[in-house]
Design a protein that fits this description.
- The protein is an all-alpha fold and about 60 residues long.
- It is flat.
Length: about 60
């Protein structure tokens, strides 16, 4: 039962985008262990700004 819940949680995090930050941290640490990692809030702000600036990703008019 615990394995099913863990798997469900992992899938849920992928579907909702929560795992993106974890992958960013792992990637950044793997490239340079001493690199400064953005906070979750700063990362999400950067992600939203990047998405809104790229017309291929869709944009928000208002």
């Amino acid at each position: 039962m615990a394995r099913r819940l863990a798997r469900f949680r992992a899938v849920w995090r992928e579907l909702t985008g929560e795992a993106v930050y974890d992958r960013y941290v792992a990637y950044t640490r793997a490239r340079d262990p001493h690199a400064e990692v953005l906070s979750r809030r700063a990362f999400e702000r950067w992600r939203v700004d990047r998405r809104e600036a790229d017309p291929r990703e869709g944009f928000r008019c208002c």
